[in-house]
Specification:
about 350 residues, mainly beta, 26 strands, about 5% helix
């Protein structure tokens, strides 16, 4: 949900993520375990509610050169290296959510395709990543109209037979559309293949390419599991709910998947109202495992609060992220006070906090 909340932050280390010392020492899976970010990105170039959603691009031969693609929903896309430095800025419109997939055949070569919702002209923005330098360039076959009043959340899916899809939703209506991406020479077009409605405002979503599952966070209701197939219809299963009966506090926001071996791994969801992140099993019925929160650290990196988008990878990236990284948007960047940004947490810190085995 779009909002800008000012928090009365205390001086204790845990205050940055909205946690009290009592919260941090409470027992049980419903108590968020504190973890600390190792890196934060440069602030976005727009003021107030601007940073929103990150996606991780993995370099094909040198993981240490991997990049973070983040939305500035007042301006466009920003690209950061793993040290948090901005290395490219694309002022192409009010980009809200972003995702990517690898191995798309375009112009005789395989490329990573990046998709984003552009609220300025109500289109799908499409980019290819040049693996030689990490630069993004637009490959959309003209203006790909969404037919939406306010294109909002977005995620991508690559099916088992190698087809590429984009999901996007329309503002607070709960209406989703699914497009199949098509190579057209050196450009990429999109064909609408599915429409369904979740019931109320949603934004965060993520598709599990291996299982064909689509997860959607209906902000004030809960987390749902759908089929990601274009013939999947509107059938769904509730994974968790917002409120006393579940583990989410409105709004349920960003969704991301940590891929382990085979069907192993985790489903992560931003519980915006409680300033923490839920972890579920990736397989089976997506059993709830526990919560963690990004707390403020004595090294000067503040914690996160009011998080929208998240992303995660299990790929070892560098000596700083030997087991992968979790990335979260920070709605209140306080140390020092600056525009919003993204925080990077080494995965092993989360695994240790929740007692998870390292993959």
């Amino acid at each position: 949900m779009e909002r800008f909340v000012s928090f009365a932050l205390s001086t204790v280390l845990l205050a940055g993520c909205g946690m009290s010392r009592e919260d941090a020492t409470a027992s049980g899976p419903s108590a968020a375990k504190p973890v600390f970010a190792a890196v934060e990105t440069e602030p976005v170039q727009s003021e107030r509610d601007a940073a929103d959603d990150p996606a991780i691009w993995l370099h094909p031969t040198d993981p240490s050169r991997s990049l973070i693609i983040g939305t500035d929903k007042q301006r466009g896309l920003d690209v950061y290296d793993l040290a948090g430095k901005r290395v490219q800025s694309l002022p192409d419109g009010r980009m809200n959510n972003v995702d990517l997939r690898y191995g798309f055949q375009l112009g005789g070569q395989e490329v990573a395709i990046v998709a984003a919702t552009n609220r300025t002209d109500r289109t799908l923005a499409l980019y290819a990543v040049d693996a030689s330098n990490g630069r993004l360039s637009s490959v959309a076959d003209g203006a790909i109209a969404t037919g939406m009043q306010d294109p909002y959340g977005l995620c991508m899916y690559r099916s088992g037979n190698g087809e590429y899809f984009v999901f996007a939703n329309d503002g607070d209506s709960g209406a989703f559309k699914q497009w199949k991406l098509q190579a057209r020479g050196n450009k990429v077009g999109a064909e609408l293949v599915r429409e369904f409605v979740v019931g109320s405002q949603a934004e965060g979503c993520a598709a599990d390419d291996a299982s064909g599952r689509l997860y959607i966070a209906e902000e004030d209701v809960g987390l749902w599991r759908y089929s990601a197939a274009p013939e999947g219809g509107a059938q769904r299963t509730k994974v968790d709910e917002v409120g006393p009966g579940g583990h989410l506090t409105d709004d349920a926001e960003g969704v991301a998947i940590f891929y382990g071996a085979g069907a192993d791994g985790y489903l992560l969801v931003s519980s915006q109202g409680s300033n923490d992140y839920n972890v579920y099993r990736r397989d089976g019925d997506n059993a709830f495992i526990g919560k963690f929160a990004i707390a403020s650290e004595a090294n000067g990196i503040d914690g996160t609060s009011d998080t929208d988008g998240i992303d995660v990878t299990s790929t070892p990236l560098s000596s700083a992220f030997p087991h992968g990284v979790f990335i979260a948007q920070d709605g209140e960047n306080t140390t020092p006070a600056a525009a919003q940004n993204f925080k990077l947490v080494p995965w092993e810190r989360i695994a240790k906090a929740l007692g998870l085995p390292l993959e």
